[in-house]
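Hi W.,

Here's what went into the run:
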Amino acid sequence: MVGRPRRSVYVPQEIEPKWQKIWAERGVMKANDASPKPKFYDLVMYPYPSGELHMGHARNYVMGDALARMKRMQGFEVLHPFGWDAFGLPAENAAMKHPGLHPLKWTLDNIVESKRDLKTMGILYDWDREVNSCLPDYYRWTQWLFLLMLERGLAYRAMAPVNWCPVDKTVLANEQVINGRCWRHPDVEVEKRDLEQWFLKITDYADRLLDDLATLEHWPQKVRVMQTNWIGRSTGAEVDFAVDGAPGESIRIYTTRPDTLFGATFMVLAPEHPLVERVTTDRQRETVRKYVEKARKETEIERLSTEREKTGVATGGFAINPVNGEKIPIWVADYVLMTYGTGAIMAVPAHDERDFEFARMHDLQVREVIAPPSGPQKMLREAYVGPGVMVNSGQFDGLDAAVAFDRICDWLEQRGIGKRSVKFRLRDWLISRQRYWGAPIPVVYCPNHGIVPVPVDQLPVELPPEYKPLSENPAWYETTCPLGDGPARRETDTLDTFIDSSWYFLRYASPHDDREPFDSELANRWMAVDQYTGGVEHAILHLLYSRFFTKVLHDAGMVEVTEPFVRMFNQGMVKRFGQVMAKSAGNGVSIAQLAGEQGADAGRVYEMFIGPPEEDVEWNESGLNGVVKFLQRVWRLVLEPESIVAEGGASATDASALRRKVAQTVGRVTEHYDELRFNTAVAFLMELANAMQDYLQGGGARDAEWESSVRVLVKLLNPLAPHVCEEMWERLGEKGLLADASWPSFDAAAAAEPKITLVMQVAGRLRDRAEVDAGLSEAEATAVALGSEKVRAALNGRGPSKVIYVRDRLINLVP
RNA sequence: GUCGGCGUGGCGGAAUGGCAGACGCGCCAGCCUUAGGAGCUGGUGCCCGAAAGGGCGUGGAGGUUCAAAUCCUCUCGCCGACACCA
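Here's what came out:
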């Protein structure tokens, strides 16, 4: 095919800055609070401002942008905001490394760079709504929300053994400790320290946080399972065991298996349990004291290792099993945790793996009380935890264990020695951090009035300008009590940065409100977030905390929704040379360089085409070149169709076939964009471009229908490659921005195929195919199949005894 | 250890009960030529065959079904989460 001289060439470096400027000038992604259109809140997780961005960062932003652009074209009023999770340690680390560099300057400089790169990628946000969690006009309201928690009895101060990261020199929430190590330093073990700290009572909301997970049907199953396990609700009973020889003294235990009460052959207290001292006999005192001391010294890692053999010592004391009056020995062992349940257990070695192991090791009695369906066992080789029938259990013998569970609970409750109980693995959220670069906790300590909240009209409690620990800055922390004139001391701890991010999605509704954290009416207009996109690393921390905050704010009457995020999506990471793209790994593809070479549009389309959105993907240069070629081909089809000359040959020129292909592509691409399945959406667009090229090469006319097809192609590609599409739109002579054009509507009738390929099978094996009219009846299809020589040969004279016909797909003849 | 996900050509992947390998990369052959990292045409899972055609094929083994990459059971491998929570 001879190409005519090309009048125009696709030069992304020229058109991309041009359109970025125009979109900004015309405020394309500005959300109108008063719009009558249906709203669509499209949110990506606001990031820590790390400076220059690379294509590893870009993936979820492109997804969010593509969805926002399509939703706008579909007639939604789209809220697509952005902001910065700007408090945190990297800024302090940078400041420590470069004396004189203030965390604020470092942060603001990084924001400038990140923002520039986002714009280079053609990603549009309503920048008028930008939030920055480290600025006083934002953290003022973070502090206000802390005071709300305090007022509602959800914030409290307590002495507790807390997780201390020796590198960051601050405490950590339970959620920030992974395998006994700091979430930011996988090789640094967390230490236990006893400190007085602020907590939020997230456990008050444990039931609702768990129950409402069931309503989040558009969340990844994986995240829901992780949150369910993290909350960890269990149902059982608390039972009091009297201490032998100590009238009035009793040990309260928690068990999820009250049905095994008759099988309790010993008890175990956590080393920190307050009754350890009192039940220990003089003979055992020294042994127990040494054991408890050793347990205290051990790190979390050592204590929590399941590999380790179970250690423990006898106290010499005995307890009375309330169901049968038996005397059972009391042990101390560190496999029982003081922080869960009551810090004490009844041990039922026959039906609990851990108790079984411990009993084996210390030669303790094992008594079977649940017989498996196969009948009572002679010798237990391992704990039996399955269902069964009660044995050795007095009046409960013969009952199904599941029934006995309830009977025994009733029995305990009637006698006042026990009660049903629900426990959670979830602990309260420790929010104090011993850092500078965070929102100061807005309370003062007054010798006369104790803990005094800073009055809301005195917020924000601003950070002092000097970068040094708040606890070493008396000029800052020395203040006067708001309730009197006496001297008082400010709290010098700051709030966990996860507090900042637990409400930012509400701030976007009214980001400049200076009377309250957010305007309830506007928040109700925009909430809930219709699509929330971000990394799976926040599956527990950020998402659980945000759900908690939303419920508290709902209870306070500030917002209607009880769940913040309707649909959640976790995008996969971008790798290169086998490693996740990261500044530290030095394998990032620079956005500036990409835009200067292949163009931002090519980068956007490629990153969507590269693989399934939820999977990790490997960046690959030749794949990127394939996308560049695709964009050039579209350019030529749209703007230079006369350069594609008919060759005759095999290609079909059927205009109705092209019409159907266009209609089908509208349907498929729209659906796949909606489901964020961008990789397949790109494939469909490529198919359409191929079909359009075949049409021209086959001598198809460039008539009105062709012109309309071209415009559909440009519209469908626009969310992914907005610059080049906008340019083509203009060169096609269209008025107005493509960004504001309407999305093509799906015409099912136009997409319907009049002819289909009927697949003919004999006994489930493919034997022949035929082009037939769509909508054949079973009888007609059977006739077609029996008319096939190949089918008849396969049947070999055995008439079909059974016919399975799937309309417009296949017919299967079974001999 | 428990729970969850994944396993498909040379490569990225598509198909969620109905033609396995869409789309792209790569590769092979050819065309054109302004000689390019350009464009165009055709081919490209494996095996037998000159071809027509046939057989095999979605980590492995079994099962359900007229029909299985897809559902079920077992198993191997990789990845992720949780990990003494009574």
